[in-house]
Amino acid sequence: MALPAYASPLERIWHYTYLVLCGLIFFFLIAPILVIIPLSFNAQPYFTFTKEMLNFNPAGYSMRWYDLLLTFGMQEPQAERGWSWWMDVWQHATWIGVAKNSLIIGFFATIVATSLGTLAALGLSRPEMPYRRAIMAVLISPMIVPIIITATGLFFFYSKVGLAHTYPGIIMAHATLGIPFVIITVTATLVGFDNSLSRAAANMGADPRTTFFKIIMPLILPGVVSGALFAFVSSFDEVVVVLFVGGYEQQTIPRQMWNGIREQISPAILAVATILVFFSIALLTTVELLRRRSERLRGMSPG
Amino acid sequence: MTDVTTELRTADGKSLKAALAASQVRAKRRAFFLVAPLLLFILVTFVVPIGQMLKQSVYNDAFSSTAPALDKWFQANPLGTPLDEGAYAALASDLKLMKENRTQGQAGTRINYDVAGTRSLFTSTARKINRLEPPWKEAILGVNEGWSDPNLWRAMRSASSPYTIDFYLAAMDHTRDKDNNIVPVNPNRAIYGKLFGRTAMLSIIITVLCMILAFPIAHLLATLPLAKSNLLMIFVLLPFWTSLLVRTTSWMVLLQQQGVLNDLLVWIGIINNGQRLEMMYNKTGTIIAMTHILLPFMVLPLYSVMRTIPPSYVRAARSLGATSWTAFRKIYLPQTLPGIGAGSLLVFILSVGYYITPALVGGADGQLISNMIAFHMQNSLNWSLAAALASLLLGGVVVLYWLYDRLVGIDNMKLG
């Protein structure tokens, strides 16, 4: 927003105040996320910048909390760091174990949510779809209903049917929570979809399956992938359902963080948090690139 | 005009109207079949569990399943019948059954929800029941005088049917007196009404704060050239994509008494080392952290509405002589109202159900209704009360969701 040449001095002052205000709000948004990155390299078990850190003294920084992430829960953390030490990390370290769980649960939940969600989004964007509004409202509701209510309901239901403390139980619950994201992103992609393309394919003798895989799928793929990423993140970040219906075997990263924060918060949590921040930066970049690609494919200008 | 009656027909001789109708039905069915698997999935993993929860809020057989004789006596004798030997004989027979099945604790707990301090009556009397002899009235009252309390008998009467609305009464700070009239509970035990009020109050504060903070930056993002605004958008989207627990953790780090913010204030000299601010484990902590977490949900809808407002409108107003304030108030602001409405409703809906952040930074007086539900689920194990509280919250959220759908339309929800 450029300042017009005829602006009065008062307007000028207001304009710059406004820019400063915006800067402060952006700072408020981003600073809390960035501040934990340097703190995770703290050599002391404190949550604030020590004198050494502020003076950029190397002694104030260390990798000890990252090291703790590997050694915590190991059988022989003091052993020499060779092949067997890394095997020990892979098999016994608590944080590695929960990361494996998070990835397994997230992967399968994403597969379920994306396949069912994409199929449904295709149906929902057809003009003939009956009760479209009501069905859409039901399918989006897992995102709106407070998670504690969903978790409470799942707790009662799963204890009755024997899905409590099982992987399939958690995966189904996480898939449910991810589905609204898939529906929203895929239907948004389908809004700009040119239906004459699929009609042309049918006209040339393609059966519906070929049309779907050869014509529709490549065009909506960016939307599907970003929906899948959303679904993965919502599973990767979910703690309440795991807390309510997950057993000891199904501990995930957020669940372990939750334990860590509630019991005794140590800078090791900040080390995990830092890793997760970089993880989300990578995801955000991917989604942003996909969005641009989708717009190019559909012949829209970026925006 | 010849032959008006002749129907149009398709090549194979069917009526065109019927053929069209048939093909439309087929198209409808095909569209529905695409949605059906997901609908079924959501039904099993979401709708049925919510139904289970609603059932749990009105159904509790912890007492009724353990006390068949009392149930029979209650059915034969309406409320107000004097407690005669028959009543105590039924009680004795049920206590024996409970002792046999070891269910006296379960039954006592259920009655204890209604009349506090009665669980021990069940456990202590059941322990001695096999040594007692008729007449039962004297024998049982001899063990504990507490059994003569008419309110206790009223509670047992209402618990002898598994279906009850008593948990909703409890969730709304009401109870029944000995004559089965609904009365408000003792004011110093009335916690749920206050908690619902606080949840609504904090959510309103958070929504308003989000609105105030989101408006300027959404406006800036919408008016900047795309290349720049896409870059600045990262500041909004990165928090949006960052794990909730990470953001909550960083606020814990910032707000602690020995944390970064207090250190900074001491270093600048605004406060002494001795008077560090308590910004966490209270309402302030909940408000600050939740405002930060929910801010992107306000910025994104506002931004997408502001993007569509043509800048020429404000320019036209200015050229017609409006001051910049008037042009903003009369021209720009009214056009952003759909965005403000969408964002505020979304933020409010999300914040009334928040659990994690208040649980971690809220302390005692920054807790919301979700935390109370979790408390009853995990600590006090009064699941029916938890379900009743959750159902009330769900009712509120559903109304807001319906409003959101009417005003904004779910299809218009955007994610980045």
Automatic annotation (TrEMBL), chain A:
Its main location: membrane. PROSITE patterns: ABC_TM1. It is found in: Cell inner membrane; Cell membrane. GO terms for biological process: transmembrane transport. Keywords: Cell inner membrane, Cell membrane, Membrane, Transmembrane, Transmembrane helix, Transport. It is a multi-pass membrane protein. GO terms for cellular component: plasma membrane. Residues 99-287 form the ABC transmembrane type-1 domain. The keyword Cell membrane applies. The chain crosses the membrane at residues 16-41, 103-122, 134-158, 170-191, 212-233, 268-290. CDD domains: TM_PBP2. Belongs to the binding-protein-dependent transport system permease family. This is Polyamine ABC transporter permease. It comes from Thioclava indica.
From TrEMBL, chain B:
It is a multi-pass membrane protein. Residues 196-404 form the ABC transmembrane type-1 domain. Keywords: Cell membrane, Membrane, Transmembrane, Transmembrane helix, Transport. The chain crosses the membrane at residues 31-51, 200-224, 231-254, 287-305, 339-361, 381-404. CDD domains: TM_PBP2. InterPro entries: MetI-like, MetI-like_sf. This is ABC transmembrane type-1 domain-containing protein.
